[in-house]
Amino acid sequence: MEPHDAGMEAAERAESASRRTHEIAERLTRLATDRRSEVGDLRSARRHAEEAQRRAEDSLRRAVAGHERAARSHERAAQVHEQAARRGLGDVVEHERQAERHRRDAQADHDEAALDRERTDWTGHDGATPAEAGT
Asked: Alpha-carbon distance 31 to 54, whole Å?
């Protein structure tokens, strides 16, 4: 799975969990006024939905961390290739080419991490559940 795909899937799970939590919160409000006997079931469902959202948000945070680790690895590989080129070890032109490729890959990973961080803006990363944020 491509790193970009993992971040997107985590974001989609977080968004889905957020929507489901909102739906359950709204249903809880409607049904609580109409039928007291189902309130316990709805609260339980709401807790499950909130837990699913937390897991999705955790997955998204792990995707960010993974992108940042990959970026650091690419940056270090670029430094090694640059040092080898400066010292004249092996094929200098190839080391320079590889260093540039690693720099581009590092930037791409930093960009993916930034996109994943932006996705957390709509997943309730401030600690409030969507039900709390929306009510």
From this structure: 25
Note whether 124 and 17 are within 8 A (CB): no
This prediction has a pTM of 0.61
d(CA 52, CA 87): 53
Contact call for residues 20 and 126 (beta carbons, < 8 A): no
- The one-character DSSP state at 126 is T
Take residue 122 and report the two structure tokens written for it: 């709509």
39/45 Cα distance (integer angstroms): 10
pLDDT in tens, 98-121: 999 999 999 999 999 999 888 776
Indicate the domain borders of the chain: 3-121
